[in-house]
């Protein structure tokens, strides 16, 4: 039972990796073409989530083989790379958003931001439900924390949806920049939690950390 549970958790981690790669490619390509910073930043976040998901997949393989949920050197390194990447994304998004506000920049369209965010919300909701079910069945804090990280990804999707839909409905160009800054804020929180996890603190994405 436990073996099949961890096998399913590994499949979910692999699905998360492949989905985020596809989402990142599509979002960054369309975001650059339509000059929508929020969608481009959302795509960059997806690639950072790939690094985190690879660390989770590695952890699950180790737990299946050896047991124990404490993080090894590879997982700690992945978390540190994830943290640095999130901080860099935050800085880039906030700086570019302020520049866009100053220049009164408007994206060509944010229609595809609405589409991508709705698709992402659907997939993240599926992953949250599946990972939570497996985590409860196995009584695994690590898998439950991974489910919480998928929930954090859902917040990124909702931020993109609100800013993209808002621009499509109102034509107010600043909404794209505001959406990008909100994604930047969420990225900063994720970066801080990644470093806390690397130090051995107990965190679930979007929640507080404790020793």
Mean pLDDT over all positions: 90
- The structural class is mainly alpha
Summarize the biggest pleated sheet. none
Number of beta strands: 0
Q: Helix amount, in percent? A: over 70%
Number of domains: 1
Instruction: Supply the number of helical segments.
Output: 6
Q: State the separation between the terminal residues, measured CA to CA.
A: 31 Å
Task: Determine Rg (CA atoms, Å).
Answer: 17 Å
Shape: elongated
Strand content bin? under 5%
Low-confidence stretches: 207-211
- Quaternary state of this entry equals single chain
InterPro entries: Cation_efflux_TM (IPR058533), Cation_efflux_TMD_sf (IPR027469), Tmem163 (IPR026765)
Pfam families: Cation_efflux
Family: Belongs to the TMEM163 family.
GO molecular function: monoatomic cation transmembrane transporter activity
Structural commentary:
- With 211 residues, the protein is mainly alpha-helical.
- Helix 2 (37-66) packs parallel to helix 6 (174-198).
- Mean pLDDT is 90; it is low at 207-211.
- The longest helix has 33 residues, at 2-34.
- The protein contains six helices and no strands.
- The two termini are 31 Å apart.
- The protein has helices spanning 2-34, 37-66, 73-102, 111-138, 141-170, 174-198.
- The chain has one domain (2-198).
- 44% of the residues are buried.
- Residues 81-197 form the Cation efflux protein transmembrane domain.
- One of its GO terms (cellular component) is cytoplasmic vesicle.
């Amino acid at each position: 039972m436990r073996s099949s549970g961890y096998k399913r958790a590994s499949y979910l981690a692999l699905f998360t990796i492949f989905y985020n790669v596809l989402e990142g490619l599509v979002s960054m390509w369309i975001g650059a073409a339509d000059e929508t910073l929020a969608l481009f930043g959302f795509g960059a976040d997806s690639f950072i989530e790939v690094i985190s998901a690879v660390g989770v997949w590695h952890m699950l393989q180790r737990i299946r083989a050896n047991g124990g949920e404490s993080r090894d050197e590879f997982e700690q390194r992945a978390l540190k790379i994830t943290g640095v990447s999130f901080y860099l994304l935050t800085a880039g998004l906030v700086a570019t958003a302020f520049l866009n506000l100053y220049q009164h920049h408007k994206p060509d369209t944010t229609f595809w931001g609405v589409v991508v965010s709705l698709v992402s919300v659907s997939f993240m909701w599926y992953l949250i439900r599946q990972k939570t079910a497996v985590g409860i069945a196995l009584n695994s804090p690590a898998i439950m924390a991974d489910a919480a990280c998928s929930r954090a990804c859902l917040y990124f999707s909702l931020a993109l949806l609100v800013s993209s839909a808002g621009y499509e409905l109102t034509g107010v160009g600043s909404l794209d920049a505001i959406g990008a800054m909100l994604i930047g804020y969420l990225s900063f929180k994720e970066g801080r939690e990644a470093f806390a996890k690397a130090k051995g603190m107990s965190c679930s994405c979007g929640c507080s950390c404790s020793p």
